[in-house]
Amino acid sequence: MKSKVKTLSYSQFLAPRYLPTWVLLGWMKIAALLPYPWQINIGKYFGKLGFYIAKKTRNNVRKNIEVCFPELSGADKNTFVKNHFEAVGAAFSEMGLGWFSSTNRLIELVKVEGIEHVERAREKGKGIIILAAHFTTLETSTSVLGEYFPGMKSIYRPQPNAMIDALIHRGRKRQVEEQIPSDNIRAMVRALRNNHSVCYLADLANKGSNSELIPFFGEPAITSTTVSKLAKITGATVLTYFFRRLPGKEGYVANIGAPLEDFPSDDVIADTCRLVRRLEDYIRLAPEQYMWTYRRFKGRPHPFRDIYNPEL
Q1: Could you read off the pLDDT of 117-137 as tens digits, one per residue?
Q2: What is the reported pTM?
Q3: Helix (H) or strand (E) holding 178
Q4: How far apart are CA 278 and CA 175, in angstroms?
């Protein structure tokens, strides 16, 4: 069952600081009316503009790529960064498709791989932990999530921009029964013990007792270990759910991975490393579509340097 979507009141967001978000909202509503190839083409054009305008973001993307793909030449890294900005631009168009078009329209564009893993997991009579990640297709992927995972609940972390926060919350409510705050472990456990599905992001960088430094493309990054612990406590099956945009504007592939063997173990660090390795394998299929604007290596303790500080 999907949540009923209430009309969002925009009157609370009339301050000038929300003007860029209003522009984004306007574009998403227009994009929702356009043919899919137009959405992607126009979105990529905006992404190309963003490459030249967003200097700080461009620096963060390049730093991530330099750390994760040191084998690339300078020219290849530049091409990578440009392709990534195009993917980000396409994502803003896709948010219109996911949030303001009919769900059936999006479903027709999605090829699903691995749905049999969901059926087998449900036969066990336990909850399912769905492991997703920060891809540029994230909001598109969550817009069909409830179609494949009945009884869907997602983990939610508030955004600093209150209007963006409200839009994301509204958009995701179309496919999930409940959005659980990312620090509410008890609510996650309760949902899984009641045989619901809970979507969790594999690359969350929350500090605290539920995180460790885990190699990401060989570079240590603060990574949540919550999935291993939740699986241990509840007996839930862990399935990866990664979503990528196909070339040629052909739509998307939703890949539901088989559960890992002998998971979870008694070693949460080893478990989390295995999950991150699977994420890395999927990123390599279309590396420009991972959200490299996300500062994956932020907040690391001494002696790790801040790779995003241009003065270091």
Answers
A1: 999 999 999 999 999 999 999
A2: 0.90
A3: strand 178-181
A4: 25
